[in-house]
Design a protein that fits this description.
This protein is α+β, with helices and mostly antiparallel strands. The chain has 4 helices and 22 strands. The strands form 4 sheets. A 6-stranded mixed β-sheet has the order 16-17-18-22-1-21, with no helix packed on it.
């Protein structure tokens, strides 16, 4: 009876120890989870506190440059797009057929009036001229002899008349052949610059074959059009300024040389022609040119640098620099004590642009400070830090340097 009882005691003894181990593991896991949760809670609380402080401080200010809108007196003008045309220009060609025997120019040469450019073969004509000169000399000898004989009453007057007729006929024959030779020599009709040579030595030319082009230098015409409403304000001699878009050269001064008396019935535009000096030959015939007709009256406009204008599909705008209000969020100064200002977006109506300036018809007034560099990275009420230490100065007649 004692044996079975002892076996029961041995089988039930390990169970409390096993439960204790399980309980220990559970408690350890709970402590681990609690520790991790406390750490994570501390991190989240720190991040939330930092976020509140950053929200209170506001976004960091953007570094920009600024300029003050100014009132400038601009000369009134009318603008148009014109085409450069030569004062004198012609396509040179030969008058008579023949084979090219000599070319006395190269493409792009400057030539004088009357300078020989191309000579055709004139060997046959020169032989004929020599024969005509011999006949003319013989006719002169005969007429002198006949005159002496008639004076001595040895010869008849009719023979003298025939000899005198032979002198005149032979002289006319020689002049005719000389004219034929001259027609086979192409000369420059006026001084100017030649174009690209289109013929070669030995080439046979039919009458009217294009040899090259010749255009006068020193001045050009610029043809342009303006609306018919401007007819009463346009007169010969009015000053104009001509510039080539994309060129760094300053505008060239000229004057209106002609106003067409008729108006185009399709476009209702007036055709005008301006005479413009061109000593450096930078205005080439066929170029497009921007033309500004200077009017006698002046006007005052509010201007800002072109870089201050932000163009967008919903309108043009500028950013006006303002002091931050006392109740506005964010810092008022930088850590080193510089004032932080506010950029307010202001939509404007643009007028004419000249040089580095744009005129503002509506939206801001003279004296307003606007962002002139860095406006592309701003939005309404962005905090900014104004730094004008490296600001470029805008000009009405900019002359960029070549580097």
């Amino acid at each position: 009876m004692q044996g079975p009882k002892n076996n029961l005691t041995m089988n039930t003894a390990p169970k409390p120890r096993k439960a204790l181990r399980i309980l220990t593991v559970i408690v350890g896991l709970l402590l681990l989870v609690g520790t991790l949760g406390f750490i994570k809670f501390s991190q989240i609380s720190s991040l939330m506190s930092m976020g509140k402080e950053m929200a209170k401080a506001g976004p960091p200010p953007e570094s920009v440059s600024s300029a003050v809108a100014t009132a400038q007196s601009w000369q009134s003008q009318m603008t148009a797009v014109g085409t450069v045309a030569p004062v004198q220009g012609v396509a040179l060609s030969n008058d008579s057929p023949g084979v090219v025997s000599k070319i006395d120019f190269e493409s792009g040469d400057l030539v004088k009036q009357g300078q020989v450019l191309v000579e055709l073969d004139t060997s046959v004509e020169r032989a004929q001229l020599a024969s005509a000169v011999v006949r003319h000399d013989l006719a002169l000898v005969n007429v002198n002899r006949s005159r002496a004989l008639v004076k001595e009453q040895v010869s008849s007057q009719s023979l003298l008349d025939a000899d005198e007729s032979s002198v005149k006929s032979s002289a006319v024959d020689a002049q005719t052949i000389q004219a034929q030779i001259a027609r086979k020599i192409v000369r420059a009709p006026f001084a100017g610059r030649l174009g690209i040579r289109a013929v070669n030595v030995g080439q046979y030319l039919s009458p009217g074959t294009a040899l090259t082009v010749l255009q006068a230098v020193g001045a050009v015409f610029v043809d342009f059009s303006l609306p018919q409403q401007q007819l009463t304000t346009l007169n010969n001699g009015m000053p104009v300024k001509v510039s080539i878009e994309g060129s760094s050269d300053p505008a060239v001064d000229g004057t209106i040389a002609a106003v067409d008396p008729t108006i185009d019935s399709t476009t209702r535009m007036i055709k005008l022609r301006a005479a413009v000096p061109n000593p450096s030959a930078k205005l080439r015939p066929g170029m497009f040119a921007d033309v500004a007709v200077i009017l006698p009256d002046q006007g005052t406009v509010v201007t800002v640098p072109l870089t201050a204008v932000v163009h967008a599909s919903f309108g043009d705008s500028v950013f006006v620099v303002e002091d931050k209000k006392a109740d506005s969020p964010g810092s008022k100064t930088t850590p080193d004590g510089k004032p932080i200002k506010n950029a307010r977006q202001q939509f404007v109506r643009l007028g004419e642009a000249r040089g580095d300036f744009a005129s503002i018809l509506d939206g801001i007034k003279a004296g307003d400070e606007v962002v002139s560099a860095g406006a592309f990275k701003l939005r309404n009420n962005s905090p900014i830090l104004v730094d004008n230490s490296l600001q470029a100065k805008p000009e009405l007649n900019p002359k960029p340097e070549n580097h």
